[in-house]
Amino acid sequence: MRNLIRRALTRTMRVKKREMKLPPSEHIVWMVYFASVSLIGLTALEVLHIVYFHAWNSEIFSAITGLIGTITGIFLTQKA
Q: Rounded CA gap, 79 and 43, in Å?
């Protein structure tokens, strides 16, 4: 999964009719990886909460929303 994230965040620059690939920082790769795994875990936790308690947990949903915003922000700022 980290290689997929690394490829998604890699920039391509053209310098004198040549293309150079600039890989992202390892800190960014690990942060997106951790946020993605956390997002999957929190989504599973929310589903289990709904199945077991038959109620929506707004705190888990807030954490999911924050992680989605973080991941989206990282991808938008890396491609600019």
A: 27
Q: Dihedral angle at the C-alpha atoms of 14, 15, 18, 23, nearest 10 degrees? A: -60
Contact 38, 70 (CB under 8 A): no
| Domain boundaries defined on the chain | 25-80
CB 71 within 8 A of CB 32: yes
Q: pLDDT tens digits, the chain, 80 residues: what are they?
A: 889 999 888 888 888 888 888 888 898 898 889 989 999 999 999 999 999 999 999 999 999 999 999 988 888 887 54
Query: pTM of the predicted model, to two decimals?
Result: 0.78
Show the tokens assigned to 74. Answer: 């990282």
Token digits of residue 33: 């990886």
Measured CA to CA, the distance from residue 22 to residue 19 in angstroms comes to 10
Structure tokens at 77: 């700022």
